[in-house]
Amino acid sequence: MAKIHLRPVTEADLSILFQQQHDPEAVAMSAYPSKDRGEFMRHWEGILKNKNVTARTIIYKEKVAGHILFWKEGKYEQRVGYWVGKEFWRRGIASAAVIEFLAQIKIRPLYAEVANHNIASKRVLEKNGFELLDEGTKISIFKLK
């Protein structure tokens, strides 16, 4: 398991997080399109100001490897989501981040969405106790009780 550290997201992290979400291969694995710089920065400005969001930067070997979030929204009220930069894939970083984050976020149930074709991300959730709740045409919904 990768040794990671979670800390609050800072404005200094945003340029790295922007580049990570802009990578074409990473976008193809995700259920979400990338944002242009202005849209991305406005989105994160809202995240960082929102008291109902817990946002953490994933640090691996002193580098920003990605982010993990908890927020409340819509039908599946309490949600968790994460993004790991492509250069950090296949190292157990996402699994380690979810383990550490779940120790901090005690609210249950939690829900997560994953693109159906993203087998690695589905596996991360399953290893951390999430169960498949609904498999749609493009998105799978997972629940942690």
Name of the CATH homologous superfamily: Gcn5-related N-acetyltransferase (GNAT)
How many helices? The count is 5
Give the low-pLDDT segments. none
Q: How would you characterize the largest beta sheet?
A: 4 strands, antiparallel
CATH class: Alpha Beta
Any idea what the radius of gyration is?
14 Å
Give the domain tally.
1
User: Which outline best applies?
Assistant: globular
The neighbouring-strand order within the major sheet is 1-2-3-4
Structural class: alpha+beta
Alpha-carbon distance between the two ends: 24 Å
Number of E strands = 7
Q: Which range best describes the helical content: under 10%, 10-25%, 25-40%, 40-55%, 55-70% or over 70%?
A: 25-40%
Would you kindly provide a written description of the structure presented here, covering whatever features stand out?
With 145 residues, the protein is α+β, with helices and mostly antiparallel strands. It has a single domain, classed as Aminopeptidase. 34% of the residues lie in helices and 32% in strands. The longest helix has 13 residues, at 37-49. The protein is globular and about 35 Å long. It starts with a strand and ends with a strand. 26% of the residues are buried. The model has no long low-confidence stretch (mean pLDDT 94).
